[in-house]
Design goal:
The protein is an all-alpha fold and 339 residues long. The chain has 16 helices and two strands. 38% of the residues are buried.
């Protein structure tokens, strides 16, 4: 279908809200992705002191990071009410599993600080389990979304593969976060895990990239016909170059100088951005793959305009608070304290 014909005469508001929804999901995946990754890595910490330092590195941020998930769900509910029913009906069980994981992680995060030595191991395990469950559920939902929510044996197998690779991607970005925030033995531990999981993250990126154009003839044409090919080609080429560059950089770490410890995390963020661009490029203008466009799913323009004006006030506050918190708590993670 010709994109010019789709866009001609259509309101810009649903497109604006689709962009806001996509940016909110991307912000959540990056920000909560790294702290879910740290949660999964915490099970491999050599000592309880190392585990405390890992948790201290995400302590000021992890709760606020989930704001972006709340914003994304809120935008879906109010801006695309016709789509949210389809999405939640198709993903009811994995959404429930994800929420259980996030709740378990949140409870464990607070309770482990007050637990006795006898029960602290239980809460450490719960923190790991909650992080893993949430990550796998999110990856499974992504796989089903790409396949248009059709639960054939092949589609479910793809969703399971996506779940594992997304969890590995979170471990990877979590490891790069620890490289940036930690020193010494803990930084070396993070470097080892970043090297191991880089290729699993690359596998997930390749699997999603290979499956996406096969979902529909429309997406296939957007990938492999001119002039659309020119718009897409930089993304996979940049992703390949970034993966190779990350592999080279990780081989040089840890280094005597810590001035480039930020580079792996920046590269991991770049990979997530490129993956999101590829998905957005492929599925737009559909909010439900090959079923419902953003205009068909959107609320009335009058309602969207009111919400849009509100978003112009709320979104800068969320962005400003996020930036401020990362500026205040920049630098290496300090000793974990609760007093």
């Amino acid at each position: 279908m010709d994109m010019d014909a789709i866009l001609m005469g259509q309101s810009w508001l649903p497109v604006a809200f689709a962009a806001l929804l996509g940016l909110s999901i991307l912000a959540y995946v990056i920000l909560d992705g790294y702290d879910l990754g740290v949660g999964m890595l915490s099970v491999g910490a050599a000592t309880d002191a190392h585990r405390d330092r890992m948790i201290a590195s995400i302590g000021p941020f992890w709760d606020a990071n989930e704001t972006w998930l709340v914003l994304a769900v809120g935008l879906l509910l109010v801006a695309f009410p016709y789509a949210q029913g389809v999405v939640l009906q198709a993903l009811y069980l994995p959404v429930l599993v994800m929420l259980v994981g996030l709740i378990l992680r949140g409870v464990a995060f607070d309770f482990r600080a007050k637990a006795t030595l006898r029960t602290r191991g239980l809460w450490n395990a719960s923190f790991f389990a909650g992080s893993l469950i949430a990550a796998l559920a999110q990856g499974y939902m992504l796989g089903l979304y790409i396949m248009g929510f059709e639960r054939t044996l092949l589609n479910v197998a793809f969703a399971i593969l996506t779940a594992v690779c997304v969890a590995a991607g979170y471990v990877f970005i979590g490891a790069t976060w620890l490289i940036m925030k930690c020193e010494g033995a803990l930084q070396r531990f993070a470097v080892r895990w970043a090297r191991r999981t880089l290729w699993f993250a690359a596998l997930g990126l390749f699997a999603v990239s290979a499956a996406t154009p096969l979902v529909s003839e429309r997406i296939f044409e957007k990938w492999f016909t001119m002039p659309y090919l020119v718009l897409l080609a930089p993304a996979p080429l940049s992703a390949i170059a970034l993966i190779v560059l990350l592999h080279i950089v990780l081989k040089t770490l840890p280094a005597k100088s810590d001035r480039f410890a930020w580079a792996p995390f920046a590269g991991a963020v770049g990979l997530f951005v490129l993956a999101s661009y590829g998905l957005g490029y492929s599925f737009f203008p559909y909010v439900i793959p090959e079923q419902m466009t953003v205009w068909e799913a959107a609320a009335a323009d009058e309602s969207l305009m009111i919400i849009f004006v509100g978003a112009l006030f709320v979104l800068p506050m969320i962005v400003g608070y996020t930036i401020l918190s990362y500026v205040i708590f920049s630098g290496k993670a300090r000793e974990l304290r609760y007093d």
